[in-house]
Amino acid sequence: MQDEEKRTWAEIKLGNLENNYKAIKSMLPDSCELIAVCKANSYGHGAVQIAKKLQNLGASYISVSCYKEALELRQNGVSLPIIILAPSQPELAPQIAEINAVQAVGNLYVAKKLNEEMAGSGNRLKIHIKLDTGMGRTGFMTNRQETVSDVLSLLKLENLSCEGVFTHFADSDDIEDRFTEEQHSRFVSAVEAIEKATGVNLGMRHCANSGGALNFPNTAMDGARVGLMLYGYIPGKAKNSLGLLPVMQLKTRICEIKDLSAGDSISYGRTYTCTKDTKIAVIPVGYADGLPRRVSGKMKVLINGETAKQLGTVCMDMCMVDITNIKSAQCGDIATVFGEDISLDALADAADTISYELLCAVSQRVPRVYTE
Fold first, then answer.
1. For labelling, which of 7, 40, 207, 256 has a CA lying 20 to 30 Å from the CA of 327?
2. Of the residues 13, 39, 53, 130, which is catalytic?
3. What is the pLDDT of residues 297-337, one digit of tens each?
């Protein structure tokens, strides 16, 4: 895409992704595989391009949320093992097996349905067993007596092939909350009990997400499912001691400059009235691009190395910023919404949300531009 064609775009720096991958790998034990999380279009970064880069860097596994995401990667040349972390409709079992993906299973009823769908296909569906150790979401509950017998029944299903077992942490972003260690203990005990009762080695064990790998390194077993840190952000309030770099920079351009007088109001609802003569820039980024309306009046953008406060209500396609003190600003100048030099975490705080949500919210009409 030519520069003059760009309205608002997300610059994806694959060199920063490489930096983050290497930093995370150096943190993990040698025996721990990095399972790169590429669900939700790789947190808005573009799953195909991100997964291909990670494959070239030597990642061991890719994880996604659903069959459609796995299929897209396979159709675009990603050959790494792919784990589908969320439940899939049983009818999709043959297609999942056909693309050689691994399905997470945390429910005996669903396991039986998957097994039925695989009957007569001449194939077996690879699975990882999901244990719920305290997330209260999907998985066999480790605090239920029937879990061992349910997993034993699952392991007897002839069309399923178990290759791993895992759980998901509920609060690993908080290093002060010891519940993560409790979840890990529950997981280890449950796996030991299941393997003892069944005589079956369940295969690869993985617990740690980004927060777990960073804050509770003892939970990095055979694999760590790392998402947010790959894209340059630390979960929770921990310091970025790894030297991670933001992979996405959300940018736009000044499309109009105008002078307003004291008493003039700005945008829908007239939520902002100028208290003095003010020079504003209109930038073509709004909530249809992924900039949440709830940051109205609470955020800043970066223009020519200086910050400009956003004024009034964020519109669907535009918003206005105060450039009174940025004398060099001209139409066509780049305004950075977040990236290496202006914090996504600050924007997330203004929106009363987390960085994950804002990355995923960058809409499809915003082109991704890939650089090394």
1. 7
2. 39
3. 999 999 999 999 999 999 999 999 999 999 999 999 999 99
